[in-house]
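Tokens help. Our protein:
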Amino acid sequence: MGELTPLSLVVGFIIAFELIVLATVFYLSISSLPSNPELFKEVRDSTILSVETSLITTLVVLMLSIPVSYWFSRQNLKGKHALRALLSIPYILSPSASGLILLIFLVKNPLGRTLNDSFEIVNDFKGIVLAQSFLAFPIALIYFTALFKTIPPSLEEVARTLGYGRLEALYRIFLPSLKPQVVSGALLVFARAFGDFGASLILGGGIRGRTVTLPIALYFINQYGDIVLLAYALSSYVLIAYLILFLTSILER
């Protein structure tokens, strides 16, 4: 056994405290019978909706952020940092503020109104995906730009001598060699999308049976005052969060 030090005691205390807090929620979720089984079904549906929207968001964000991040990692243009800061604004804003910005664009801007009228974005599944993508894109941009900066320029020279263009080298050589890091980035995007509340509520509308994701369901359940149902929903949320963090930790080894 390792030596017992003040630092190990602090770490042990923090771990024990978190375990006790989480155990309280899990115990409550399995020790009591549901007062309304139909509401439990709605929690499951909300969890499934959250997973579905987060998976689509992850795919969309990766498709957009990977080439854009690679471009930023390889350019020395004047104003590059200003452009990157512009694209990263949602990273700093609260999710609610980001959702309101998107909502104003979709209902007040002529282009936004056209898009909303054509694709029915507001108060729909697509609105949730748009909100989550708007929030998750800056995280992916920051992560992948830093990742691609680790690629030595000499490897690009080798790729060019083999007849690969810049994007072709990215997708055929560099990304396969960075697969664990790319998967970690995808998990970060998924986690950001899965945890969104404010922007998804504003764009999706929180319509029962249609656009209530798990974080939104937690808010509504808390308003109902059903503590057992709330514990059940929180347990689902915590388990998925733990799985994401556990997988990310494995990939970082």
